[in-house]
């Protein structure tokens, strides 16, 4: 019984996390991307940042194409072959950063999945 409740709570948290990023920041979460609690908590350690982190096994080119189709301004940080892209939503000062591969700041390990950060920085 406790296991079922735990699983249900986890699934609900995942749905709420995706919905919260979409509702609060107005940027769609890449379909099938999983909410990354650890990276999100690290992101939110900066008090002027709001946002969330997601991960997907899909290739960066596919993720980049999705965000281009959303009508976000494409800011070239790198190219899909170089492993990073950045997008900006004009209203709301929201950025989407996509990386593959990426380095886990905690362990120093190189991760091969695609990391998606949806970030809003407060105006100073």
What does this protein look like?
The structure is a single chain. The protein starts with a helix and ends with a strand. It has one domain. It is of the alpha+beta class and 124 residues long. The strands form 2 sheets. Strands 1-2-8-5-4-3 form a 6-stranded antiparallel sheet. The protein contains 3 helices and 8 strands. The relative contact order is 0.19. About 12% of the residues have low confidence.
What is the makeup of the main sheet? 6 strands, antiparallel
Radius of gyration: 15 Å
Identify the strand order in the major beta sheet: 1-2-8-5-4-3
Number of helices: 3
Query: Helix- and strand-based class?
Result: alpha+beta
Q: Per DSSP, what share of the residues sits in E-state strands of 2 or more residues? A: 25-35%
Helix share of residues?
Answer: 25-40%
Element pattern in H and E: HEHEHEEEEEE
- Shape label: globular
Number of domains: 1
Any low-confidence stretches, pLDDT <50, length ≥5?
4-18
**What's the β-strand tally?**
8
Distance from N terminus to C terminus (CA atoms, Å) equals: 48 Å
Calculate the mean pLDDT score and round it: 80
